[in-house]
């Protein structure tokens, strides 16, 4: 059977050779009616040789020729799926304007569509303008001006943003230095608080006679009493400083008064 297909496809055998081959295959039972690929049904009752000659004559008819590309395609895809996989436009006999535009947008000039379909026709534009007038929409010129103004505003905002970025980048070294200065100061304050806490814990150990924890109520009460005492002392020192300043000011005023009195008596 394979040899027979090869002879038919290659078209190199003579008609008599094909007739003899067909006769032998049919007689031996190697070929039946269900295995005939290119057989044409005949209603006439001719002899076996005439039927073989009429059924398998080699001609240039496209219906009798095997498509080489179809034989090579073993993907089991439909023709349109095969074309789509290879980036080719599929066959769409039902396509309307929307499908045509989609085809041209996807495949370009390979789709075979006219590029003019991508733009609306004059009648469509006139109909759209009439519809806009009925709806009370703004004229096209006014809308174009609004779009231009929006674009200019967006561009101006973009320029302002770039300007702010440049200014901030110029101040970036200063801000980085201030940040690290604050971090250093915070670490120093944390170290001072830790040292103060450790000193308070040591003082509490000497006061109670045993080592206490920072969350011990006795320790917290001691800390509160100590803070209140420190606040009272700070308040007392503030009052004393204020009294000293007041006394110094009064002494200065008294000295001025005495000097003026001496000048007046003299």
TrEMBL record:
Q: Does the keyword Mitochondrion apply?
A: yes
Q: Where is this region: Disordered?
A: 221-266
Q: Which domain of life is it from?
A: Eukaryota
Basic and acidic residues biased stretches: 223-233
Which of UniProt's keywords are assigned here?
Cell cycle, Coiled coil, Mitochondrion, Nucleus, Ribonucleoprotein, Ribosomal protein
Alphabetical GO CC annotations of the entry are: mitochondrion; nucleus; ribonucleoprotein complex; ribosome
- Indicate the secretion signal residues: none
What does this protein's UniProt record list under function?
A: Acts as a negative regulator of G1 to S cell cycle phase progression by inhibiting cyclin-dependent kinases. Inhibitory effects are additive with GADD45 proteins but also occur in the absence of GADD45 proteins. Acts as a repressor of the orphan nuclear receptor NR4A1 by inhibiting AB domain-mediated transcriptional activity. May be involved in the hormone-mediated regulation of NR4A1 transcriptional activity. May play a role in mitochondrial protein synthesis.
Family of this protein: Belongs to the mitochondrion-specific ribosomal protein mL64 family.
> What's this protein's name?
Large ribosomal subunit protein mL64
UniProt organism field: Plakobranchus ocellatus
